Amino acid sequence: MAEVTALIDYGAGNLHSVENALGKAGAKVTVTSDPDVVRAADRIVLPGVGSFKACALGLRKVTGMIAALEERVLVGGAPFLGICVGMQLLATRGLEHGTTKGLRWIEGEVHLIEPSDASIKVPHMGWNDVAIMPHARGHEVIDEGEAYFLHSYHFAATDPHTIAAMTDHGEGLVAAVARDNILGVQFHPEKSQAYGIAMLERFLNWDPR
């Protein structure tokens, strides 16, 4: 039986584009807000578009979803991918529109991008390089290349060993975080053309055990 990839629907993701990209990569995708579907999924993708606070509140409004994610990912070991704000939600807290608690799966805070050079525009938008950090996990999925970014806040990870990739926008910004079976990317693979589809293909074959 083909693996099922659960794409979490909590009202805060670019679901159609992500679903299409996963399909092109070969996934059997189930778009769901049902915790029981998440508990049975082989792989899980958490998208996110908008503010950290809105996404965190939206996820918490889906009854039982965070408990199901913790059960399937933290206990069950299912490979997990967070995209954009879905990646930021892995943090301890976000500082957008006040302080909002994250999932606390990877220690760190999500801060506003504040470049020292006034000519550097925020949001960080468009194509940019993804540079691999050799000491981190996730290299089976993340590769060197160019990806599409769109964000005004960035993940400041506490432990450098959880930083899987970096990019540069007037300063070094985290492009991906990883630990164990958990991976998050700040860029949008669904908008990153061949680079993004190849990354999703590797995620679908990722065995982080």
Task: Describe what you observe in this structure.
InterPro entries: Class_I_gatase-like (IPR029062), GATASE (IPR017926), Imidazole-glycPsynth_HisH (IPR010139). This is Imidazole glycerol phosphate synthase subunit HisH. Pfam families: GATase. One of its GO terms (molecular function) is lyase activity. The longest helix is centred in the C-terminal third of the chain and has 12 residues, at 193-204. Strand 5 and strand 6 form a beta hairpin. Helix content is 25%, strand content 31%. It is built from 6 helices and 13 strands. The chain has one domain (5-98, 106-204): Rossmann fold, CATH 3.40.50.880. It is globular and about 50 Å long. The model has no long low-confidence stretch (mean pLDDT 94). The protein has a 9-stranded mixed sheet. A 4-stranded mixed sheet has the order 6-5-7-10, with helices on one face. With 209 residues, the protein is of the alpha/beta class.
